[in-house]
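Sharing a chain and its predicted structure for anyone who wants a worked example. Both blocks are below, sequence first, tokens second.
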Amino acid sequence: MTRTYTLRKRAEQQAETRQRIVEAAVDLHGSIGPALTSLSMIAERAGVQRHTLYAHFPDERSLYLACSGLSLERDPLPDAAAWRTIEDPRERLRIGLRAIYGWYERNADLAACVLRDAEYHPLTKEIVALRYGPFMAAYGEVLGAGFSNTQNAVLRVALNFFTWRTLMRESGLEREAAVGAMVRAIDGAKEA
């Protein structure tokens, strides 16, 4: 009985340590970005030694996967499948962009750092492609169904995090105004 209790207690402590490490990494990735976050910084923030960090995460890739997994578990990206049943393309687009922009709003700091670093940091780029790529492809497919090439090009602009940031953070638009502006831009691209 004592051995079982000891093993269970040790497993709980390991799980708590692992969680602290992942939380520390997510916090740093959302404040300074993954490219500038060192393993030493993560270990210090988590209150562990580097060898403890390596015992849980033998390489940076496994840590990045855990970080992105935790972030998306806490606040999953919107599921495009729910929008397939909306027949009116404008309404489907409006509902989809509203959901995506809401996610961007809730995750702005982390998304800004991660997506910025994905431009030049190979591991971040790989993880972004793995975690966000399938969602972005689904958004393009579902929201862009029946659109012209030009409309799909404008849709890609509308789906971009940095477009959202320009519209809402830098220009001060409310979400509905930003969504409406993008819907009108895509509508206007019909004739181009």
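Comments welcome. The first helix runs from residue 2 to 31.
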